Automatic annotation (TrEMBL):
Source species, domain of life: Bacteria
Protein name: tRNA(Ile)-lysidine synthetase
EC number: 6.3.4.19
PANTHER family on file: TRNA(ILE)-LYSIDINE SYNTHASE-RELATED
Catalytic activity: cytidine(34) in tRNA(Ile2) + L-lysine + ATP = lysidine(34) in tRNA(Ile2) + AMP + diphosphate + H(+)
GO biological process, one term: tRNA processing
tRNA(Ile)-lysidine/2-thiocytidine synthase N-terminal domain sequence ranges: 5-108
Presence of keyword rRNA-binding: no
Length: 239
């Protein structure tokens, strides 16, 4: 975690998924089935809201991503426990789940119970909200893909962004176009790219993630090859 500048929870999550993917490759598995529940999804939504996430983050945990599927995402944790107890089935509880030093546990053990006091259907309602947001995100994603083709011309490992055409799109789609080009950029980095593109006259900018040159209404940008960009989010502080 320290080597990659990740929090302990985030590092553990990345390692778990990496191990699962490696095991699936080794065993020839077409699907990786995980047991995330509607409660897990609410916790994720709340944590993402607190860190200022966009639509995709607020939508919570996706039902499917690649070969990872989550068939229990619409089921509350309490219902699963009742099912197991009714059939005298045991389950394993991670000892760290009681440690309030981890942010997710703080949300799970202290914040979610308060929300349930406000509305006993908080978990179910949050899952409904997540499904609506995920559908909106999917639609905007398709619109952004179409806008990208209209605004950006790819030539010899570079992207030529027509700033006049870019300005014709809603800010939400402009942000998504930039994210399609550089998924590793955070919100601040995306804003700096758009600010650079909106300026008049020639100019240059370079960061660890993005190299830009602006001239005659065109922003020429380097398209990094896979594996060449930083693993961590690039903030683009020198735009």
């Amino acid at each position: 975690a320290r080597r990659h500048r990740l929090g302990l929870e985030e590092a553990g999550r990345e390692l778990r998924y990496r191990l699962l993917e490696a095991a699936a490759d080794r065993l020839g598995c077409a699907r990786i089935v995980l047991g995330h529940t509607a409660d897990d999804n609410l916790e994720t939504m709340l944590m993402n809201i607190c860190r200022g996430a966009g639509l995709r983050g607020v939508a919570g945990i996706p039902v499917r991503r690649g070969r990872v599927v989550r068939p229990l995402i619409d089921v509350e944790r309490a219902d699963i426990i009742r099912y197991l107890r009714a059939r005298d089935l045991d389950w394993v509880e991670d000892e760290s789940n009681a440690d309030l030093g981890f942010r997710r546990n703080l949300v799970r053990l202290q914040i979610v119970p308060l929300l349930k006091q406000l509305n006993p259907a908080a978990v179910v309602n949050a899952r409904r909200c997540a499904a609506l947001l995920a559908a909106e995100d999917e639609f905007l994603g398709m619109q952004a893909e179409e806008a990208l083709r209209a605004v950006v011309e790819f030539r010899r490992g570079r992207a030529l962004i027509d700033t006049r055409k870019l300005r014709q799109y809603n800010l939400s789609l402009r942000r998504r176009i930039v994210r399609l080009l550089w998924p590793e950029l955070d919100a601040e980095g995306v804003a700096r790219v758009l600010n650079f593109a909106a300026q008049a006259g020639p100019g240059r900018s370079a960061t660890g993630c993005v190299d830009l040159k602006r001239r005659n209404g065109i922003v020429e940008a380097v398209i990094r090859k896979k594996g060449k960009t930083r693993q961590r989010t690039c903030r683009g502080t020198d735009f």
